[in-house]
């Protein structure tokens, strides 16, 4: 368990998920990738109307 580290994950949308565990490097990368992909998808959804306005103009 040398590569395992204590990981605490809190997602609180009105006291939702709270998790604390010993996570392997694979789990840490998976959590980070999920957060990055979620942020990129929200960014893409917010920029889509702007792109359509620019194309119309």
Q: Low-confidence parts lasting 5 or more residues at pLDDT below 50? A: none
Question: What proportion strand?
Answer: 15-25%
Spatially, the strands of the biggest sheet line up as: 1-2
What is the overall shape? elongated
Please tell me how large the radius of gyration is.
18 Å
Question: Total helix count?
Answer: 1
Q: How many strands, which pairing sense, and closed or not: the largest β-sheet?
A: 2 strands, antiparallel
Overall tally of structural domains: 1
Q: What is the mean predicted local confidence, pLDDT?
A: 82
Distance between the termini: 58 Å
Question: What is the count of β-strands?
Answer: 2
Keywords:
membrane; single chain; transmembrane; alpha+beta; 56% helix; elongated; 1 helix; 57 residues; two-stranded antiparallel sheet
Descriptive account of the structure:
- Keywords: Membrane, Transmembrane, Transmembrane helix.
- The chain has 57 residues and is of the alpha+beta class.
- The protein has one helix at 25-56; strands spanning 5-11, 17-23.
- The chain has one domain.
- It is 56% helix and 25% strand.
- The chain has a two-stranded antiparallel ribbon with strand order 1-2.
- The longest helix has 32 residues, at 25-56.
- The radius of gyration is 18 Å and the shape is elongated.
């Amino acid at each position: 368990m040398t590569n395992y580290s204590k990981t605490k994950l809190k997602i609180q949308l009105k006291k939702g998920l709270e998790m604390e565990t010993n996570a392997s490097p694979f789990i840490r990368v998976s959590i980070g990738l999920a957060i990055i992909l979620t942020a990129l998808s929200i960014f893409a959804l917010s920029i889509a109307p702007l792109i359509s306005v620019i194309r119309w103009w």
